[in-house]
Predict the 3D structure of the following.
Amino acid sequence: MLFDELNYKFMSAALQEAEKALEQNEVPVGAVIVHNDKIIGKGYNQTERLKDPTAHAEMIAVTAASNNLGDWRLNECDIYVTLEPCVMCTGALLAARIRSIYFSEYDPKFGACGSLYNIAEEGKYNHTIKTYSGIYSFESKELLKQFFSMVRKENLN
C-alpha cells in the first residue's frame, strides 16, 4: 500500500521516539498521536526506567494527547507506532476512540492488530479502528534487531 507524505513524516517522528527508547536500553518502540495534521502526543517505551509494565509508547502517547486536548476522547486522532500494538495498548486505543492506527512492523508474539489478534477491527466493541501497516517497516525492524542483539550479547557476558 502506498501512503502519503504526511504518513511518512509522522512515522518518522515515531521512529525518533523509538530511538530514544533504544538509547535508554528500552525495547525501541515509539509512538506519536496526530490531530489535524499536528503531533499532540509522543511516547516511547519506558517500562524498565519507570518499573511499570504499562509504560508502553502508546500508553504514554495517549496520556500526552488526552492532556493536550483536555479530553479522553481521541476520535479525531490517529496514532503512528513503530510496532504493532499489544492487547493492552489496543484496548486503550479503543477506549480512547482513536480513529486509525498506523504501524511499521507486525509483532508475532504480542500483536493485537492483525498478527495474533485483530482486536482493533474485529467489530466486537462499540468502536473499531482502521489499521494500516508497513510504513518504515525495515527501519523499525532494524532498531528491534539492534536492541535484541545487544540484549543477547549482555546475557552471554
Q: What stands out?
A: The chain is about 40% helix and 20% strand. The chain has a mean pLDDT of 96.
